[in-house]
Amino acid sequence: MTTTKYKRVLLKLSGEAFSGKEGYGIDAAVLTRVARQIKQVVDMGLQIAIVVGGGNIWRGAKAEQEGMDRVTADYAGMLATVINAIALQDRLEKEGVETRTQTAIEIKQIAEPYIRRQAIEHLEKGRVVIFGAGTGNPYMTADTAAALRAIEIQAEVLLMSKNNVDGVYSADPRKDPTAKKFDKLTYMTALNMRLQVMDATALSLCLENKLPIIVFDLQTPGSLEKAVLGEPIGTLVS
Question: What is the pLDDT of residue 1?
Answer without folding.
Answer: 60
